[in-house]
Amino acid sequence: METKEVFDKVASKYDIMNDIMSLGAHRYWKELLIDWLSPKKDMHIIDVAGGTGDVARRFLKRVKGKGKATVCDPNEFMVEEGKKNRTYKDKIEWVVAPAEELPFKENTFDAYLVSFGVRNYSNIKKSLGEAYRVLKPGGSFYCLEFSKAKNETVSSAYNIYSSIIPVMGKIIVGDEEPYKYLTKTISNFPSQENFKKIIESTHFKEVKYRNIFNGIVAIHHATKIIDV
Ligand SMILES: C[S@@+](CC[C@H](N)C(=O)[O-])C[C@H]1O[C@@H](n2cnc3c(N)ncnc32)[C@H](O)[C@@H]1O
Question: For the domain that residue 108 is a member of, what is the CATH number?
Fold first, then answer.
């Protein structure tokens, strides 16, 4: 199943399925992402693979609507679903485009955020190059993504839980295939150390990550520092 087909199918139920599949935990994880960003008024952030714009709205809520957010996603159905939510609608710019070819000038954004999106990118290195290009000097890259649990017991429990996600998809959305794809992309995604190495192989500097829930989820951070 192609990535586009997956998100075409899940778009209308995306937000509710996110709550059900993560037992609401994605809300907490995204708040930790915004905590690490240390949002400031007048920041302009880009939420890539932004889907329905959940992360962008969490940022805008923290800055009481005083910042600006661009939500960028190649799937028009996800974007259309996001536009139905009118919260902070004047502060969000919606752009349909993939992470591999961002239609923005260099040095545009204060921060690049991607939440549960990188594992869907068709070319991670090219996308990281685009992230670097569109960030202002000193700008920050943040990636929230499923990762590898440190503890064997946690990892086994998580694998059992993952195996029932397609069943939930079948019951709620009427199709298990998109959810089989989602769990496959999670298990294929590099470990937190290997993803750190991939980011370090680009121009980004000061690459760090934090584990959440024993590493089931991790947030990677990197900075655009221009050598003088
Ligand atoms: C699991 S959703 C995440 C949505 C949102 N960021 C969130 O955390 O709720 C993954 C998103 O990645 C998008 N996507 C797929 N391929 C992409 C690509 N090459 N570049 C950018 N986004 C992509 C999908 O359209 C989908 O909206």
Answer: 3.40.50.150
Number of domains in the chain: 1
- Residue 135 lies in domain: 23-149+190-223
Atom of ligand 1 nearest to the CA of 123: 19
* 73-122 pLDDT, tens digit each: 999 999 999 999 999 999 999 999 999 999 999 999 999 999 999 999 99
d(CA 218, CA 32): 10
- Identify the residues whose C-beta falls under 6 Å from ligand 1: 3, 7, 18, 48-51, 54-55, 73-75, 78, 98-100, 115-117, 120-122
CA of 49: how far to CAs of 33, 72, 161, in Å? Answer: 15, 6, 25
How far is it, in rounded angstroms, from Cα 178 to Cα 180? 5
Structure tokens of 159? 């694998």
Q: Is the model's pTM score more than 0.90?
A: yes
**CA 183, 211, 120, 57 torsion-angle sign:** positive
